[in-house]
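ok so for the tutorial part 2 we go from a plain amino acid sequence to predicted structure tokens. step 1 is just haveing the sequence, like this:
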Amino acid sequence: MNVGNLAHPAEEVAPKLLGAILTHETPEGTVSITITETEAYSGTADPASHAYRGRTPRNAVMFGPAGHLYVYRSHGLHWCANIVTGADGIASAVLIRAGRVIEGEDLARKRRGGTVESPRLARGPGNFCQALGITAEHNGTDLLTGASVTLSEGEPVPAALIRVGPRVGVSRAHDWQHRFYLAGDPTVSAYRLSPRAQPPAGA
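step 2 — the prediction. this is what the tokens look like for a chain of 203 residues:
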């Protein structure tokens, strides 16, 4: 996709981010990861979104502009990275769930643990951030202006390889078909229904 054209709803951008590359340059070295799994979160219209109840200091980055990084702590355990999409002022973001390390694998493994197998280095949103070296300090980073964390185009992904399914581990709107991933790719995380999942509206 044209990574400079992110000002569209998250559910439209999420599948197009498959194959795109996130790169983080640090004094330790550079790590680049090709995105293989994403999830769309549609802001105030989405019960599973951090922005569902409106703007707060925590979720302010989600309201735009597009192309910035929204980073949050999940369950107090690990960082999660989202790429802000949509029109400025309207909350919308794509969670990066998994990827394949294509540069800096030794550094990514050092961050994750020396015995982690290659396909698992960036499998799952927390592992993705750990391998890439993303923390709270990167919240709000503009991915398109040449900062230390950047988003770039990768090899085009054939539409036949893209799969769609329900989101992983969320308790509300878990049945929404807003998860996108590459079929058969070993870096993609396993589907897991949240034990707190609520019945779909009207069920």
